[in-house]
């Protein structure tokens, strides 16, 4: 049986069983790694304490084809899941199709409007109505660093510039280690490029290229320079990088096989799951050139229109997600930071405290910017057009100049 067909059949079968349970939520998500599973159990346990059953629909592979195929098959069949983990404009796309429920009553009672950063609300709401509950705020402009390797080569502080960062990488290589643990999948290439592009071009250019889709900003010397900077990393990855899952790339740093992994702070969950402690066993640095910014994504549970009978446990799930108790318990395990402002950082580790402080500052200063690579600057078709060209460049299939030109051409077509 073809893979997509099998996913659809399994999804419909699970859905039929879940629909028969009035006091249950059926949740489709892609949190399948060790650290992610530990974080998700926090929400499962909180619902269980309220007598709400959890029907699990894990779909490995991130916010890609597998997950969206499963969701679409269920919605088309008229039996959507209670909640689906979605990112950014993917939420907007489903809202436009009138597939999502309405959380206004919960949001108004609990004052979500003043508690959640406006940049996050842009995706939690559609035409004024709350349609999703933000679980967290991840930022992607992090470098995860092996402290043992840094100790061996005598590095004690984060580099202040990209040139200094690459000089450290050269020292790592001379010491016999792989500089970068790298996962060669298009979405991972795009996550790395988000930070590099922001560092090279600055926020105004980033906005012009990835949000406003200005063709002169896309096919520009700045874009070429950003791609070429990314190419410096390409020269420092192992030959087996292609297709590697993100958590395996992170594990290279955890196991002190590689010094650095540029990845969102979900990677920290893997370090914590391995029993490691920030600053003692590993460092968290901001990608050089982005220290004043937070490049964000927000995992949200979009609440689908499941009818009045199944709405109460759905609303309770949304309320629990935005509670301070859950936000602390979940995000201390997941590696992310709360989507609710003003929560104490006392229970967070050093990297979490830095992340919370950075988010508060970015929210206040207007330097909270969405991740292009993970659906927080534009729609899926546009994102995919950018990501395909970025990945083609990284894998040597396009020059930097040709990749920038292809971005402008394909993005213009995709945005029509």
Can you describe this structure?
With 416 residues, this protein is of the alpha/beta class. The chain has two domains: 3-136 and 299-344, Periplasmic binding protein-like II (D-Maltodextrin-Binding Protein, domain 2, 3-Layer(aba) Sandwich), CATH 3.40.190; 139-295 and 368-414, Periplasmic binding protein-like II (D-Maltodextrin-Binding Protein, domain 2). It has 19 helices and 14 strands. The protein has helices spanning 3-19, 34-49, 65-76, 89-96, 104-109, 112-115, 118-124, 147-153, 162-174, 186-211, 215-218, 221-234, 246-254, 267-273, 311-321, 324-334, 350-365, 380-394, 400-414; strands at residues 24-29, 53-58, 83-87, 125-126, 129-130, 132-134, 138-139, 142-146, 178-180, 258-262, 282-286, 294-297, 299-303, 368-370. The strands form four sheets. It has a five-stranded mixed beta sheet, with helices on both faces. A hairpin with a 2-residue loop joins strand 4 and strand 5. Helix 1 (3-19) crosses helix 3 (65-76), helix 10 crosses helix 18 (380-394) and helix 18 packs antiparallel against helix 19. It is globular, with a radius of gyration of 21 Å. The model is unreliable at 1-20 (pLDDT under 50).
């Amino acid at each position: 049986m073809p893979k997509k067909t099998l996913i659809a059949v399994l999804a419909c079968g699970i859905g039929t069983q879940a629909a028969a349970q009035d006091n249950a939520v059926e949740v489709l998500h892609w949190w399948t790694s060790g650290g992610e599973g530990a974080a998700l159990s926090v929400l499962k346990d909180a619902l269980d304490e309220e007598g709400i059953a959890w029907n699990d629909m894990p779909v490995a592979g991130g916010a890609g084809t597998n997950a969206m195929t499963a969701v679409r098959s269920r919605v088309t069949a008229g039996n959507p899941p209670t909640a689906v983990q979605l990112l950014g404009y993917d939420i907007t796309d489903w809202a436009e199709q009138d597939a999502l429920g309405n959380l206004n009553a919960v949001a108004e009672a609990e004052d979500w409007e003043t508690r959640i950063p406006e940049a996050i609300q842009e995706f939690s709401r559609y035409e004024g109505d709350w349609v999703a509950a933000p679980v967290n705020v991840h930022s992607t402009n992090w470098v995860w660093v092996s402290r043992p390797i840094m100790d061996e080569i005598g590095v004690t502080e984060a580099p202040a510039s990209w040139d200094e960062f690459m000089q450290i990488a050269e020292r790592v290589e001379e010491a016999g280690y792989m500089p970068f643990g790298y996962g060669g999948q298009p979405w991972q290439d795009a996550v790395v490029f988000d930070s590099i592009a922001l560092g090279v071009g600055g926020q105004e250019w980033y906005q012009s290229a990835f949000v406003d889709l200005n063709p002169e900003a896309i096919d520009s010397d700045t874009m070429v320079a950003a791609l070429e900077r990314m190419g410096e990393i390409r020269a420092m990855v192992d030959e087996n990088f292609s297709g590697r899952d993100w958590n395996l790339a992170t594990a290279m740093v955890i196991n002190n096989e590689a010094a650095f992994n540029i990845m969102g702070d979900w990677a920290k969950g893997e370090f914590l799951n391995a029993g490691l402690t920030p600053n003692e066993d590993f460092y968290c640095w901001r990608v050089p050139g982005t220290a004043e910014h937070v490049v964000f994504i927000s995992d949200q549970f979009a609440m689908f229109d499941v009818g009045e009978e199944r709405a109460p446990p759905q609303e309770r799930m949304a309320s629990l997600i935005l509670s301070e108790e859950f936000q602390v318990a979940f995000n201390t395990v997941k590696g992310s930071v709360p989507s609710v402002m003003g929560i104490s950082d006392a229970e967070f580790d050093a990297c979490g405290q830095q992340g919370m402080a950075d988010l508060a500052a970015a929210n206040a200063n207007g330097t909270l910017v969405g991740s292009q690579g993970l659906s927080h600057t534009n729609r899926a078709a546009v994102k995919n057009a950018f990501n395909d060209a970025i990945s083609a460049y990284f894998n040597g299939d396009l020059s930097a100049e040709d990749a920038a030109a292809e971005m402008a051409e394909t993005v213009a077509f995709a945005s029509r």
